[in-house]
Structures are given as structure tokens and as C-alpha cells.
Amino acid sequence: MEFQVVVLAGGTSSKTLIPLVSEEVPKPLLPVANRPVLSYILDLLESSNLKDLIVVVEGKEAARRVSSWISSTYLDRLHVEVASVPEDVGTADALRAVAHHLTANDILVISGDLVSDVSPGAVAAVHRRYDAVVTSLLCASPVSGPSEMGSSSGKDKAKKPGRYNIIGLDPTSQFLLFVATGAEVEKDIRVQKSILSAVGEMEIRADLMDAHLYAFKRSALQEVLDRKETIQSIKQDLLPYLVRTQLRSEASTNGAQQSDENWNEKVSSGNNPTLFSHDLATGTAPSFHEFYALGLNSSAPAPRKTYKCCVYIAEKSKYCARLNSIQAFSDINRDVIGDASHLSGYSFSNHNNIVHPTAELGSKTTVGPQCMLGEGSQLGDKCSVKRSVIGRHCRIGSNVKVVNSVVMDHVTIGDGCSIQGSVICSNVQLQERVVLKDCQVGAGYVVTASSEYKGESLARKEKSQPQ
Predict the structure, then answer these.
(1) Does an H or E element contain 177, and which?
(2) Domain at 4-253+304-322, CATH class
(3) First vs last Cα of the chain: how many Å apart?
(4) Confidence band, pLDDT 50/70/90 cuts, at residue 27
């Protein structure tokens, strides 16, 4: 049976995206170049002929909105079931919630906020080739936006100094031997002795991003999710668990189950001999999984059963980013109308921009390269738009400057406003002579005339919802 695909699309609870997300615009529908971010992964799956999908959305209202959009956009193109799970549920818990729908031998699990041109089919092919229990897509870590692009980039970097992954790979760069993320990176890194004993050497990489695209063997996935109820996150719990246990035999030589916590304090083989040395000399070295399966301490042991945790490392030329922060939202919008314009799905003009035929420009108004102006939007006289996306049906007055910003649909901007490095959500009103730098303005907010803000998040107070 072909791969089934589970897209984990989120909802309105993402704290890192407040005030961009709202009840009207849940995370899967956040616009990237005036298209919902979810459309990028759905189009990528369709192009790979992966059309049997379960899209998991947090919150019933968000799920209803996403379902309605998918039905109108992908009718007769994809077979999609939208499943609702509670807000703030972990990614592994989201998989548990849809487990009864999974019947294929292999499952692709993809984050709905991924914007990429890496073929999921390539990951699936590696997974099948090695009969892996999990295969993870790794991409080059993205570089954050240009220095003039504010949008809290400075604050983000100050808050999160260690937001990178430590990845351990075998010498062939096919098998995932070790993974540590986030806060773990601040501590001493410990690696399992059995891994080092088996492989003899390990390559440590800190320049790779877990793209949140995984192929799983369904039987193993469901077994672990059923048995280990404490596993809540795929990246932080499930993947490290599978990696730690991949070399554990069903029974060790003395009949006892090997421990998960068989650690060595340093990323080094220490006193262990390099076990591959005699095989490498012949040029016919087996993979470390094959070597381990033979047994280490016996001349004729029974083969060991091992999990295989594989990786597919995308070429550096491929685009891969996740919309999981305000900075990432700004960066991806900029990229998709800039260096990664092939992802946008639009045809660019001779001026290297996209101006919808129904948009209206006033006298002496300029829309620069790497800009997008949506359907039905109007700009007054002497306006300047640089490296920005402007949504549909916006009303922009005269003498307005928009630089390195994203303006969503139905926004009204008064005369003489200046907007730099900011995100303006739908139905916002900026009165005359407003100055915004590195700000986010939530949906429906009204900014009064002549106000100046820098590095602020402006949003209406949410009404408390009845439980």
C-alpha cells in the first residue's frame, strides 16, 4: 500500500505567532505571498503524487475554517480528511488521535508550516530502501533575514541563543545515531556506549535543521505510541527515543533487556577500538547496522533485531523553512517573492514583481522588485513599496512608504504613513501619519493618527471565551 500522509497543521494557540494568528486566521491559513502557508505543503504533496491526506488542526473552529478552504481549493485534486484535536496538544498526541485512520504500512508525517521544494517522495524512497523505522528530512539551517529587516529579529536572537540541533550521523551519513535539541544543547552531551561501540566513529553536525518531515513504519510507530504514553512530541520525545533504542536487541546476550540509559559522557569512542577498521581495509565495510546485527562478542551469534533510523539530507541549494515564529513569517514571505520565487506559483513581471491586474497605482507611485500587490488593492499618489507583500483589497493613501513588511487583506492605511519591518494583519486601520518600525499589528486593530511605535505588538484584547 502507498504512503498515507498526516499533516500536522496547528491552530490558533501558537504563542510564538501572536498576534498574527486569530480565530479568523488560524496558523494554517496565515498568508505567504497571499496564499495560505498550508497550500505550499499540499501542493508539494500533490506534485509528488501523495494525495491521501489527513490534516490535523488544533481547535474545532480552526478545523472548520481549514476544511472549508481545502474543500474549495483542492476539490477533485486531493483526498483530504480534516481532523480536529484540542489546542496545545503535542505532536505525538496528535498522531495518537488519528491512529485509527492509519492503515498503510508506511506513514509520512509533515508539519503544515513547512515551506520547501524538497520532494517528500525522495524521503519516502530512502525510507523504503533501508526498511527504516523512521527517516527524517534534514536541511541546511536557514539564515535569518537581512539586517534592515527588523520584525523582532534582534529580540528573537537575544532570547534564543541555542536554538540549533546537534545531529550525530554514521560515516556514510545515512543513519541517525544521535539527536539533541534546544535546552539539551546547553548541557553536557551524552551518547550511548552501544552506538559508539557499534559504529566506532560518529560525525557531529550542528548545521542541520530538522524539517519536521518524517517517514515512519506504521507498526513500530503505533507500538511506541501505545507503549510510551509519556511521549508527547515527535521531535523532542519520539525521535530521540527511536534513535536511542535502534541498536537494542530483543534480548541481550545475558537475556536481559538492554537499558535505554546506557550513556557515555563524551562524544567520543574513548577506549573502544574502531570496530570498522579491519573491514574498511577491504573496501567492503557493512553499514554499522549490518555489523551490529552480527553480534559483537560471539563468533556465531544469532542475528540481532535492530531499528534503523535513517536520514535524507537535502542539497544546500534546496529551500527549507518553517513558519514557526514572527521572524520566520517575515523571512519566508520575503524569500518567496525574492530568491525562492519559484515556490510562489506566480509569474513575475519584467520588473521582478507581482502586481495584480485589478490593482490601482496612483501618480508617481512605485512598486519595486521583489514586491507583491494583491487583487483589488489601491495605492494613492507618491507611494513607495519595497521588498513587501500587500494583500487583497487594501486601501492605501498618498505619500505612504512600505518597506520590508507584510500587509494582509482589507487593510486601510492613511496618508503619510511609514511602515518598516512590520506585519499588519487583516482589517487593520492605520490613520494618517502613523510610523511603525519592527511592529506587529493584530487583526482589526486601529492605530490612531500620528502615533509612532517601534518594536511593539499591538492587538485588541481578546474577549474571554466561555468554557
Answers:
(1) strand 176-180
(2) alpha beta
(3) 42
(4) very high
Q: Quick check: 259 pLDDT over 90? A: no
Angstrom distance (rounded) from CA 378 to CA 412:
10
**CATH label, 353-458, candidates 2.160.10.10, 2.60.40.2970, 2.40.50.140, 3.30.70.1290:** 2.160.10.10
Per-residue pLDDT, averaged over 417-424, amounts to 98
pLDDT at 278: 31
pLDDT score recorded for residue 183? 55
Question: Does the CA dihedral 167-170-176-180 come out positive or negative?
Answer: negative
Got the DSSP string for 409-465? TT-EE-TT-EEES-EE-TT-EE-TT-EEES-EE-TT-EEPTT-EEES-EE-PPPPPP
In the chain, what are the domain boundaries?
Answer: 4-253+304-322, 353-458
Lowest mean pLDDT among 27-41, 116-130, 142-156, 301-315: 142-156
Alpha carbon distances (Å) from 163 to 145, 236, 339, 348: 16, 13, 24, 35
Grade residue 182 by pLDDT with cuts at 50, 70 and 90: low
Chain centroid to Cα 288, Å, comes to 30
> How many Cβ atoms from other residues are within 10 Å of residue 298's Cβ?
9
* pTM listed for this prediction: 0.85
**Alpha helix (H) residue ranges in 298-392:** 326-336
Burial class from Cβ neighbours inside 10 Å (0-12, 13-18, 19+) for residue 134 reads buried
* Mean pLDDT score across all residues of the chain: 84
Collect all residues with Cβ–Cβ distance below 8 Å to 315 and sequence separation of at least 6. none
Q: Are 447 and 440 in contact, with CB atoms under 8 Å apart?
A: no
> How far apart are the C-alpha atoms of 441 and 380, rounded to whole Å?
22
For 171-190, b/e burial (b = at least 16 CB within 10 A) is beebbbbbbbbeebeeeeee
